[in-house]
Nucleolar protein 10 (Sapayoa aenigma), 688 residues
Amino acid sequence: MQVSSLNEVKIYSLSAGRSLPEWLSDRKKRALQKKDVDIRRRIELIQDFEMPTVSTKIKVSRDGQYIMAVGTYKPRVRCFDTYQLSQKFERCLDSEVVTFEILSDDYSKIVFLQCGRFVEFHSQHGHYYRTRIPKFGRDFSYHYPSCDLYFVGASSEVYRLNLEQGRFLNSLQTDASESNVCDINPVHFLFAMGTAEGKVECWDPRTRNRVGLLDCALSSVTADTEIDGLPSISALKFDGALHMAVGTSTGQVLLYDLRSSNPLIVKDHHYGLPIKSIQFQHQLDLIISADSRIIKMWNKDTGKIFTSMEPEHGINDVCLYPNSGMLMTANEAPKMNIYYIPVLGPAPKWCSFLDNLTEELEENPESTVYDDYKFVTRKDLENLGLAHLIGSSLLRAYMHGFFMDIRLYHKAKMMANPFAYEEYRREKIRQKIEETRAQRVQLKKLPKVNKELALKLLEEEGEEQQITRKRKQKNLPSLLKDDRFKVMFENPDFQVDEQSEEFRLLNPLVSKISEKRKRKLKILEELEAQGQEEEEEPEGKASDAESSESSDDEKGWVEEVRKQRKLLRQEEKLKRQERFKEDQQTLLKPQFFEIKEGEEFRSFKDSAKKQKLMKKTLEDRLKLEEKLGTLNVSDTTVGSKQATFKLKKSEQQRKQQEAERQHRQERKTLRRSASHLKSKRGRGRLFH
C-alpha cells in the first residue's frame, strides 16, 4: 500500500504494487509471497479488479453492492460484488462502449451506448434488446418520471427513446451543431446539454422547450488563462437544485448558480487538457474534477486546493463511492486504481478494516530504509580516512558515491574531527548574532563569500534601477536578497575560483574589470575598519577617463584573449616538463615472461601475430590458411563441403627435413660429378 501526502491530506493507494498472473498455481503464489516482500505487503481489496487492456468507464450501483466497469480489448463489461470482494460476472460486447447507465438499484437493468450507433439493453440474465439511433451518440441521460432516454451526439437533435412504450418520440431541435455531454437534475429534472460551441442549453422535459442558455466559453476566459481555440463543453454535473458544474475542453471548471448567467467561480487545471469527470463531495463542500493527467479536489466556495492526485497512467473516468472516502478511477492501463482518503469519510462497510489499518499506520509510522544509511562521496571517505573500505561490505556503491551505516559515519566523523561539535556550536552562535544584528539599522555591507560577484550585482542593480526609473517600470528582485541564492554568499564552498582554466577562458577581460572592483573593495574594507556610520562613495574618475577606459577595454579584447591563451600554453608546457622529469627519475625494471612447456621462444612478433590471428573470425582464419596453402576446401558429389588440412610441423621435424633435403642435394651433385668424369675418360680413349 502506497501512502502519499499533499497539504497534510493522506492518500492511500490500495491498488499499488505488483499483481500476480492468473495462470499461476496457488502453490507458486504462496512461494512468491514468501520470497517477495512487496507481494506480501500488497492489499488486493477486490480480486482481479482490472481489465485486459484499458478501462473506460466505472460506476457504482445505487445499493452500493456492485461496481461495474467497461473496457477493452475485447469490448466487455465486468461486474464486481463488494460483499464477496470478487468478480460476479463478465460479458463481452460487439463494439466498444461510449458510456453506460445503471437504471435499477442493482445490476438487473443496464443500458449501453456503443460506438456503432447501437443502444444495447441488458437484464439480469444478460443481453435483452438492441436498437440503433440515427447519429453517433456521445452521452445519454435517463429521465425517471417519464422513462425517457435522452441521447446527444454528432447532431443538432436530441433523440428521445421511451422505455415504457418502446418507441422513439419526437426529438428536441437545438441550435448547436454537435453536443458532447448531458445531465438531468435529480430534484426538478431539468435537462442540460453541453455543446461543441462552448454553450449549455437547458430544456424543460414537460413542455419540451428551451428555458435557458449559458455561454460558458466566454465566461471561462479570464486574465490568467491562455486559450488557443474555442473551448467546448466536455463535462457536466448537477449539484442539488440550484448548482451546476461545467468542464471545458481547455481545462477550466465553472461553477454556476442556475439563477445567474455568470459563474460563481472558475477553476483552471493549468494543463490544457479536457475535463473528463466532475464529482461533488458534500461533507466537506468539495468539487472533484479530473482530466487525463490529474485529479484535483478544491473548495467550491473559495476555489482553494484541498489535495490532488497524479496517477501513473492517463485517467478516463472517476467514481466516488457514496458516503465514504473511497475513490475509484478507470485508466489507460489494465489495473483500475482504488484510493482511500480518510479525511473525506469512513471506509465502506464491506471494507471497514481499512479504518483500523490506516489508524495503525498513522500511530506507527515506518521509517524508510535510507534513514539508517548515509550517502558519502569518494572525497568524503578520503576526508574521514575510510577510503580503504571501498570494495568491502561496509560500503554499498550507488551512483557517484556510496551508502554506509549512519553509526559508522558518526564514529568516523568524531575520530576525524573531535571538535566538530564545538565548531558547529560556534557557527550557530555566530548565525544567531548576525540575525539579531540584521534587525538594527546597518550599512550596506558586502558578504564574506564572493565579494566581487556581490559588488558586480550591486552595480548592475543600480544601473537597472536608473533605467526603470526613466521608463517607470517595476524594480526586479535582487539576487542578494533572494533566499534561493543566499547560500552562495555564505558558504565558502561556493567561492568562485578566478584562477581556474574555465573561468579565465570564459572571462578574458576579467583582469581589467576586476581591478576596478578590487579598488572599490579596498575602499569599502577601509571604511568598515574605521567604523564609519555612513558609507561614502569612492572617489570616481572623470568621465573622460572612464570613456577612455571603456574604449581601451573594447580595443584590447583580442589582446587579452591572446594573453590568456599564451599564459595557458606556458602553464601546460611547465606541467609537461615536470611530468617528463618525473618519468626520467622513475627507474624502468625489466619484465620477465614464462614460456610454456613444449614451446620454443622465437620472437615477440610471433606472439603478436598469434594474438591478432585469434581475434579474427573463423571465416577470416580459413581464408588466410587457404591462401597459405595449409587448407583446401572442395565440393563433394553429394553437395556438401570437404576441407583438407595440412598440420603445422614442429621445429625438430623441420630441421630433420632440412637435413634430409641437403643430403639428397649432396648426393645429386656427387652423381653428376661422377658421370662427368666417366664421360671425359671415354673421350680420351677415342682420341688415342
Q: What stands out?
A: The CA atoms of residues 100 and 112 lie 4 Å apart. The longest strand covers residues 54-60.
